Automatic annotation (TrEMBL):
Lineage: Eukaryota, Viridiplantae, Streptophyta, Embryophyta, Tracheophyta
Source superkingdom: Eukaryota
Database matches in InterPro entries: Glutathione-S-Trfase_C-like (IPR010987), Glutathione-S-Trfase_C_sf (IPR036282), Glutathione_S-Trfase (IPR040079), Glutathione_S-Trfase_N (IPR004045), GST_C_Tau (IPR045074), Omega/Tau-like (IPR045073), Thioredoxin-like_sf (IPR036249)
Documented EC number(s): 2.5.1.18
Ribonucleoprotein keyword on record: no
UniProt protein name: Glutathione S-transferase
Record key words, sorted: Cytoplasm, Transferase
Catalytic activity from the UniProt record: RX + glutathione = an S-substituted glutathione + a halide anion + H(+)
Amino acid sequence: MEGDKAASGGGGLVLLNCFVSPFGNRVRIALKRKGLPYEEQPQNLADKSPLLLSSNPVHAKVPVLLVGGKSVCESLVILEFIDDAFSGEGEPLLPAAPCARSHARFWASYVDTKLPECAARVWRSPKGAAAVVEEGKKDLVAVLKTLEAELGAKPYFAGDALGYVDVALVPFAPWFLTYEKFGGFSVAAECPALAAWAARCARENECVAQSLPEPEHVFQFVCGMRKMFGLD
Ligand SMILES: N[C@@H](CCC(=O)N[C@@H](CS)C(=O)NCC(=O)O)C(=O)O
């Protein structure tokens, strides 16, 4: 890809993002962790910009990483791109061994296929759809417990330091408050080790602490979005 030249020079990186997007915030974490300079262009997803539509014409979603003007789309693809294009800068997110790489990709894919879908039933259901919310909460707690079991006694999914699965999952942590408020449960009570892991990620990694929104801001944003969609 032509963009690799610009990428390996470290210049010309532009992130199209929305501050609450767990997917976009994965990319923030990865860029900050590598110490790469980039410009962030916040996107209004209710009124998509021509730049977003032209740089991600298939999905029209954030995040998009523009690399010397070329676009890289899909957050997990972007994380791998950053690992590949900037392999000289710091530790990679994915481990080198093929089995360990596959294992990490499996769990990141588990997060993507399971978590957002259950969570959306909790926070995005119309007021009054109590049975849908309840079922979503049950499924969401089961997903979080599965992730907690995979974490086990390790400080990070990757072992002793932040890795690919940690970066894939931790941007959902600021959403926990929103899930709790709409679902009527407590993540810390259901999954204490996972809650402690999320706090550890932010406490021990500046790249995480600097990349994630305040949980209350996410909640306010979601309340505004629900109003806009006529869900309340
Ligand atoms: N699989 C995508 C998901 C990206 C995604 O769902 N982005 C949301 C924001 S959190 C979005 O742009 N939504 C706009 C829309 O659905 O129209 C990724 O990992 O990048």
